[in-house]
Design goal:
6-stranded parallel β-sheet, single chain, 372 residues, Rossmann fold, 12 helices, alpha/beta
Length: 372
Protein backbone atom coordinates (compact mmCIF):
# COMPACT_ATOMS: atom_id res chain seq x y z
CA UNK A 1 0.00 0.00 0.00
CA UNK A 2 0.92 3.61 -0.53
CA UNK A 3 -0.15 5.48 2.62
CA UNK A 4 -0.39 9.24 3.10
CA UNK A 5 -0.41 10.61 6.67
CA UNK A 6 -1.49 14.22 7.26
CA UNK A 7 -0.32 15.64 10.59
CA UNK A 8 0.37 19.07 12.00
CA UNK A 9 3.86 18.05 13.25
CA UNK A 10 6.37 15.25 12.79
CA UNK A 11 8.74 13.43 15.12
CA UNK A 12 11.68 15.78 14.45
CA UNK A 13 9.73 18.92 15.31
CA UNK A 14 11.04 20.41 18.61
CA UNK A 15 7.42 20.76 19.72
CA UNK A 16 6.46 17.19 18.95
CA UNK A 17 4.86 15.07 21.65
CA UNK A 18 3.31 11.69 22.28
CA UNK A 19 1.05 11.82 19.22
CA UNK A 20 4.01 12.35 16.91
CA UNK A 21 5.90 9.49 18.55
CA UNK A 22 2.89 7.23 18.02
CA UNK A 23 2.57 8.22 14.35
CA UNK A 24 6.25 7.70 13.60
CA UNK A 25 6.53 4.38 15.40
CA UNK A 26 3.65 2.81 13.48
CA UNK A 27 4.67 4.40 10.16
CA UNK A 28 8.25 3.13 10.28
CA UNK A 29 7.01 -0.38 11.09
CA UNK A 30 4.74 -0.30 8.04
CA UNK A 31 7.69 0.61 5.80
CA UNK A 32 9.67 -2.34 7.16
CA UNK A 33 7.09 -4.76 5.79
CA UNK A 34 6.98 -3.17 2.35
CA UNK A 35 4.43 -0.38 2.50
CA UNK A 36 5.24 3.15 1.33
CA UNK A 37 4.47 5.93 3.82
CA UNK A 38 4.52 9.66 3.12
CA UNK A 39 4.01 12.01 6.06
CA UNK A 40 2.93 15.56 5.21
CA UNK A 41 3.40 17.96 8.12
CA UNK A 42 4.30 21.55 8.94
CA UNK A 43 7.66 23.23 8.44
CA UNK A 44 9.71 24.36 11.44
CA UNK A 45 12.90 26.47 11.70
CA UNK A 46 15.93 24.81 10.09
CA UNK A 47 13.97 21.72 9.03
CA UNK A 48 14.41 20.03 5.67
CA UNK A 49 11.56 20.47 3.21
CA UNK A 50 11.88 16.80 2.30
CA UNK A 51 13.78 13.92 3.88
CA UNK A 52 13.47 10.22 4.63
CA UNK A 53 13.48 9.16 8.29
CA UNK A 54 13.38 5.45 9.18
CA UNK A 55 11.98 4.69 5.74
CA UNK A 56 9.19 7.28 6.04
CA UNK A 57 9.20 10.13 3.50
CA UNK A 58 8.70 13.49 5.22
CA UNK A 59 7.31 16.50 3.35
CA UNK A 60 7.03 19.76 5.28
CA UNK A 61 5.04 22.82 4.29
CA UNK A 62 3.06 25.46 6.12
CA UNK A 63 2.32 26.48 9.69
CA UNK A 64 0.72 24.03 12.18
CA UNK A 65 -1.89 26.61 13.24
CA UNK A 66 -4.97 26.55 10.98
CA UNK A 67 -5.52 30.26 11.70
CA UNK A 68 -2.71 30.95 9.20
CA UNK A 69 -5.31 29.94 6.60
CA UNK A 70 -3.69 29.63 3.15
CA UNK A 71 -0.24 29.29 4.74
CA UNK A 72 -1.39 26.58 7.13
CA UNK A 73 -0.35 22.95 6.86
CA UNK A 74 -4.06 22.09 6.58
CA UNK A 75 -4.58 24.08 3.37
CA UNK A 76 -1.22 23.11 1.88
CA UNK A 77 -1.98 19.44 2.57
CA UNK A 78 -5.08 19.87 0.41
CA UNK A 79 -2.97 21.39 -2.40
CA UNK A 80 -0.39 18.60 -2.09
CA UNK A 81 -3.07 15.93 -2.40
CA UNK A 82 -4.60 17.63 -5.46
CA UNK A 83 -1.17 17.62 -7.15
CA UNK A 84 -0.86 13.85 -6.61
CA UNK A 85 -4.15 12.34 -7.86
CA UNK A 86 -4.43 8.58 -7.62
CA UNK A 87 -1.03 8.16 -5.97
CA UNK A 88 -2.22 6.95 -2.56
CA UNK A 89 -4.33 3.98 -1.48
CA UNK A 90 -5.37 5.40 1.88
CA UNK A 91 -5.09 8.75 3.70
CA UNK A 92 -4.72 8.99 7.46
CA UNK A 93 -6.18 12.24 8.75
CA UNK A 94 -4.55 13.03 12.10
CA UNK A 95 -6.60 15.32 14.33
CA UNK A 96 -5.09 17.85 16.75
CA UNK A 97 -7.96 20.11 17.61
CA UNK A 98 -8.72 20.56 13.93
CA UNK A 99 -8.60 17.80 11.29
CA UNK A 100 -7.62 18.10 7.63
CA UNK A 101 -11.26 17.72 6.49
CA UNK A 102 -10.26 14.96 4.05
CA UNK A 103 -13.85 13.72 3.49
CA UNK A 104 -14.42 16.92 1.52
CA UNK A 105 -11.72 16.23 -1.09
CA UNK A 106 -10.01 12.83 -0.71
CA UNK A 107 -11.48 10.17 -2.99
CA UNK A 108 -9.50 7.24 -1.56
CA UNK A 109 -10.23 5.46 1.71
CA UNK A 110 -9.72 7.58 4.81
CA UNK A 111 -8.93 6.81 8.43
CA UNK A 112 -9.02 9.29 11.32
CA UNK A 113 -6.29 9.15 13.98
CA UNK A 114 -7.34 11.13 17.06
CA UNK A 115 -5.59 11.00 20.42
CA UNK A 116 -7.99 13.21 22.33
CA UNK A 117 -11.17 15.23 22.00
CA UNK A 118 -10.31 18.82 22.90
CA UNK A 119 -13.74 19.54 24.38
CA UNK A 120 -13.61 22.14 27.15
CA UNK A 121 -9.92 22.77 26.46
CA UNK A 122 -10.98 25.02 23.57
CA UNK A 123 -12.32 27.68 25.91
CA UNK A 124 -9.53 27.28 28.48
CA UNK A 125 -6.86 27.67 25.79
CA UNK A 126 -8.39 30.25 23.43
CA UNK A 127 -10.91 32.20 25.52
CA UNK A 128 -14.69 32.44 25.28
CA UNK A 129 -15.05 33.57 21.65
CA UNK A 130 -12.47 31.54 19.72
CA UNK A 131 -12.80 28.73 22.24
CA UNK A 132 -16.54 28.39 21.71
CA UNK A 133 -16.04 28.63 17.95
CA UNK A 134 -13.44 25.85 18.06
CA UNK A 135 -15.70 23.70 20.24
CA UNK A 136 -18.60 24.10 17.80
CA UNK A 137 -16.38 23.23 14.84
CA UNK A 138 -15.09 20.14 16.66
CA UNK A 139 -18.63 19.03 17.47
CA UNK A 140 -19.66 19.58 13.85
CA UNK A 141 -16.88 17.63 12.16
CA UNK A 142 -16.98 14.71 14.60
CA UNK A 143 -20.73 14.31 14.28
CA UNK A 144 -21.21 15.09 10.59
CA UNK A 145 -18.06 15.42 8.43
CA UNK A 146 -16.46 12.18 9.67
CA UNK A 147 -19.70 10.34 10.35
CA UNK A 148 -18.85 7.13 8.47
CA UNK A 149 -15.05 7.23 8.67
CA UNK A 150 -13.09 4.64 10.73
CA UNK A 151 -11.47 6.12 13.84
CA UNK A 152 -8.21 5.07 15.47
CA UNK A 153 -7.71 6.31 19.01
CA UNK A 154 -5.46 5.48 21.95
CA UNK A 155 -7.58 5.14 25.07
CA UNK A 156 -10.99 4.11 26.34
CA UNK A 157 -11.36 7.64 27.72
CA UNK A 158 -11.13 9.16 24.25
CA UNK A 159 -13.42 6.46 22.90
CA UNK A 160 -16.08 7.43 25.44
CA UNK A 161 -15.74 11.09 24.50
CA UNK A 162 -16.11 10.23 20.81
CA UNK A 163 -19.26 8.26 21.59
CA UNK A 164 -20.69 11.30 23.40
CA UNK A 165 -19.92 13.36 20.30
CA UNK A 166 -22.05 11.04 18.18
CA UNK A 167 -19.40 8.75 16.67
CA UNK A 168 -20.68 5.19 16.37
CA UNK A 169 -18.89 2.56 18.46
CA UNK A 170 -18.49 0.26 15.45
CA UNK A 171 -16.30 2.92 13.79
CA UNK A 172 -13.83 3.25 16.70
CA UNK A 173 -10.76 1.10 17.33
CA UNK A 174 -8.71 1.66 20.49
CA UNK A 175 -5.06 0.95 19.72
CA UNK A 176 -2.83 -0.84 22.20
CA UNK A 177 0.04 1.50 23.04
CA UNK A 178 3.80 1.09 23.07
CA UNK A 179 6.98 2.79 24.24
CA UNK A 180 9.90 4.29 22.35
CA UNK A 181 13.04 3.42 24.24
CA UNK A 182 16.67 4.32 23.41
CA UNK A 183 18.86 1.33 22.58
CA UNK A 184 20.85 1.94 25.72
CA UNK A 185 19.41 3.57 28.82
CA UNK A 186 22.07 4.74 31.21
CA UNK A 187 21.68 3.22 34.63
CA UNK A 188 21.46 6.14 36.99
CA UNK A 189 21.05 6.66 40.70
CA UNK A 190 18.32 8.87 42.05
CA UNK A 191 19.38 12.40 42.97
CA UNK A 192 20.55 12.93 46.53
CA UNK A 193 17.85 15.57 47.11
CA UNK A 194 14.14 15.00 46.31
CA UNK A 195 13.67 15.78 42.63
CA UNK A 196 10.44 16.31 40.74
CA UNK A 197 10.33 16.26 36.95
CA UNK A 198 7.84 17.60 34.41
CA UNK A 199 8.25 16.42 30.82
CA UNK A 200 6.19 17.71 27.94
CA UNK A 201 5.23 20.66 25.82
CA UNK A 202 5.12 23.81 27.92
CA UNK A 203 1.55 25.00 27.53
CA UNK A 204 -1.23 25.96 29.87
CA UNK A 205 -3.17 22.75 29.17
CA UNK A 206 -0.27 20.64 30.48
CA UNK A 207 -0.66 22.12 33.97
CA UNK A 208 2.93 23.27 34.37
CA UNK A 209 1.78 26.27 36.42
CA UNK A 210 0.25 23.91 38.97
CA UNK A 211 3.51 21.97 39.10
CA UNK A 212 5.38 25.15 40.04
CA UNK A 213 2.80 26.02 42.69
CA UNK A 214 3.02 22.49 44.10
CA UNK A 215 6.80 22.84 44.32
CA UNK A 216 6.32 26.00 46.37
CA UNK A 217 4.08 24.15 48.80
CA UNK A 218 6.27 21.04 48.98
CA UNK A 219 9.27 23.22 49.79
CA UNK A 220 7.77 23.83 53.24
CA UNK A 221 8.29 20.15 54.10
CA UNK A 222 11.22 19.25 51.84
CA UNK A 223 13.61 22.18 52.04
CA UNK A 224 16.02 20.73 49.45
CA UNK A 225 13.41 19.68 46.88
CA UNK A 226 13.82 20.78 43.26
CA UNK A 227 11.93 20.64 39.98
CA UNK A 228 13.26 19.85 36.51
CA UNK A 229 11.17 21.13 33.61
CA UNK A 230 11.92 19.31 30.38
CA UNK A 231 10.36 20.44 27.13
CA UNK A 232 10.01 23.40 24.80
CA UNK A 233 7.28 25.94 24.32
CA UNK A 234 6.44 29.49 23.39
CA UNK A 235 9.15 31.89 24.57
CA UNK A 236 6.65 34.33 26.08
CA UNK A 237 4.99 31.55 28.04
CA UNK A 238 8.34 30.32 29.35
CA UNK A 239 9.11 33.87 30.51
CA UNK A 240 5.72 33.93 32.23
CA UNK A 241 6.55 30.65 34.02
CA UNK A 242 9.90 32.00 35.14
CA UNK A 243 8.24 35.16 36.44
CA UNK A 244 5.67 33.08 38.31
CA UNK A 245 8.43 30.96 39.84
CA UNK A 246 10.26 34.09 40.91
CA UNK A 247 7.11 35.49 42.50
CA UNK A 248 6.69 32.24 44.46
CA UNK A 249 10.36 32.39 45.43
CA UNK A 250 11.17 29.02 43.85
CA UNK A 251 13.02 30.05 40.69
CA UNK A 252 16.33 28.91 42.20
CA UNK A 253 14.77 25.45 42.80
CA UNK A 254 13.84 24.99 39.12
CA UNK A 255 15.93 23.99 36.12
CA UNK A 256 14.46 24.67 32.68
CA UNK A 257 16.14 22.08 30.46
CA UNK A 258 14.27 22.94 27.29
CA UNK A 259 14.03 20.34 24.55
CA UNK A 260 16.43 17.41 25.09
CA UNK A 261 17.19 14.25 23.04
CA UNK A 262 15.50 10.98 24.00
CA UNK A 263 18.60 9.58 25.69
CA UNK A 264 18.93 12.66 27.90
CA UNK A 265 15.21 12.64 28.67
CA UNK A 266 15.35 9.07 29.99
CA UNK A 267 18.51 9.86 31.95
CA UNK A 268 16.81 12.79 33.68
CA UNK A 269 13.67 10.80 34.38
CA UNK A 270 15.79 8.03 35.87
CA UNK A 271 17.52 10.46 38.23
CA UNK A 272 14.27 12.12 39.34
CA UNK A 273 12.11 10.71 42.11
CA UNK A 274 8.65 11.69 40.86
CA UNK A 275 7.10 12.58 37.51
CA UNK A 276 4.44 15.30 37.71
CA UNK A 277 1.64 15.03 35.15
CA UNK A 278 -0.94 17.72 36.01
CA UNK A 279 -2.48 17.93 32.52
CA UNK A 280 -6.05 19.07 32.09
CA UNK A 281 -6.49 16.20 29.63
CA UNK A 282 -4.38 13.60 27.82
CA UNK A 283 -5.07 11.17 25.04
CA UNK A 284 -3.11 8.50 26.88
CA UNK A 285 -0.17 10.05 28.74
CA UNK A 286 2.85 8.41 27.08
CA UNK A 287 5.33 10.12 29.38
CA UNK A 288 3.97 8.18 32.39
CA UNK A 289 5.08 4.69 31.24
CA UNK A 290 8.30 6.20 29.88
CA UNK A 291 9.13 7.43 33.39
CA UNK A 292 7.92 4.15 34.85
CA UNK A 293 10.40 2.25 32.69
CA UNK A 294 13.26 3.90 34.60
CA UNK A 295 11.57 3.37 37.96
CA UNK A 296 10.02 6.80 38.42
CA UNK A 297 6.38 6.75 39.60
CA UNK A 298 3.98 9.45 38.47
CA UNK A 299 1.54 11.80 40.14
CA UNK A 300 -1.18 12.95 37.79
CA UNK A 301 -4.54 14.61 37.73
CA UNK A 302 -7.54 12.30 37.57
CA UNK A 303 -8.43 13.15 33.96
CA UNK A 304 -9.06 11.21 30.74
CA UNK A 305 -5.93 9.45 29.54
CA UNK A 306 -3.90 9.73 32.73
CA UNK A 307 -6.31 7.61 34.72
CA UNK A 308 -5.58 4.78 32.27
CA UNK A 309 -1.80 4.82 32.61
CA UNK A 310 -1.49 5.59 36.33
CA UNK A 311 -2.71 2.73 38.50
CA UNK A 312 -3.72 4.69 41.59
CA UNK A 313 -1.79 3.67 44.73
CA UNK A 314 0.02 0.98 42.71
CA UNK A 315 2.24 2.67 40.10
CA UNK A 316 1.67 6.23 41.25
CA UNK A 317 -1.10 8.52 42.44
CA UNK A 318 -4.09 10.28 40.92
CA UNK A 319 -5.00 13.39 42.89
CA UNK A 320 -8.44 13.45 44.60
CA UNK A 321 -8.98 16.94 43.16
CA UNK A 322 -7.14 18.54 40.27
CA UNK A 323 -5.29 21.43 41.89
CA UNK A 324 -1.80 22.29 43.10
CA UNK A 325 -2.63 21.69 46.77
CA UNK A 326 -3.61 18.08 46.12
CA UNK A 327 -0.57 17.71 43.88
CA UNK A 328 1.64 18.83 46.76
CA UNK A 329 -0.07 16.42 49.18
CA UNK A 330 0.54 13.55 46.76
CA UNK A 331 4.19 14.55 46.47
CA UNK A 332 4.50 14.26 50.23
CA UNK A 333 2.71 10.90 50.22
CA UNK A 334 5.09 9.59 47.56
CA UNK A 335 8.32 10.76 49.17
CA UNK A 336 7.75 10.24 52.88
CA UNK A 337 7.75 6.43 52.97
CA UNK A 338 10.81 4.78 51.38
CA UNK A 339 9.32 1.27 51.45
CA UNK A 340 6.10 2.36 49.72
CA UNK A 341 8.11 4.40 47.25
CA UNK A 342 10.11 1.33 46.19
CA UNK A 343 6.86 -0.61 45.69
CA UNK A 344 5.49 2.14 43.44
CA UNK A 345 8.76 2.30 41.51
CA UNK A 346 8.91 -1.45 40.94
CA UNK A 347 5.25 -1.71 39.87
CA UNK A 348 5.60 1.24 37.48
CA UNK A 349 8.58 -0.40 35.81
CA UNK A 350 6.83 -3.75 35.48
CA UNK A 351 3.74 -2.21 33.89
CA UNK A 352 5.79 -0.12 31.46
CA UNK A 353 7.59 -3.16 30.12
CA UNK A 354 4.28 -4.59 28.88
CA UNK A 355 3.79 -1.93 26.16
CA UNK A 356 4.92 -2.66 22.58
CA UNK A 357 4.63 -0.56 19.39
CA UNK A 358 4.51 -3.70 17.22
CA UNK A 359 1.02 -4.41 18.55
CA UNK A 360 0.01 -0.82 17.84
CA UNK A 361 1.21 -0.90 14.24
CA UNK A 362 -0.37 -4.29 13.54
CA UNK A 363 -3.78 -3.27 14.93
CA UNK A 364 -3.81 0.01 12.99
CA UNK A 365 -2.86 -1.79 9.77
CA UNK A 366 -5.68 -4.30 10.23
CA UNK A 367 -8.17 -1.43 10.45
CA UNK A 368 -6.74 0.16 7.29
CA UNK A 369 -6.81 -3.09 5.31
CA UNK A 370 -10.31 -3.82 6.51
CA UNK A 371 -11.54 -0.58 4.98
CA UNK A 372 -9.88 -0.78 1.57
Amino acid sequence: MNILVLSWRDIKNPRSGGAEILTHEIAKRWTRIGHKVTLFSSFFPNSEREEVVDGVKFIREGHPDARFLFSSVHFLAYKFYKKNPGKFDVVIDEVHGLPFFTPWYVKEKKVVLICEVAGDLWVKMFGPFFGLLGRLIEHFYLRFVYKNIPYLTISSSTQEELLKEGVERKNITVLPMGLTVPKEIKKTEKEKNPTLIFVGRLSKSKGIEDAIEALSQALKTYVSIKLWIVGGGDKDYIKFLQKKAKTLNVLDRITFWGYVPQEKKFELMGKAHVLLAPSLKEGWGLIVPEAGLVGTPAIGYNVPGLREVIRNHKTGYLTPSNNSSELAKSIDKTLKNEFEYKKLSSAAKKLSMSYNWDNTADTALEVIKGNL
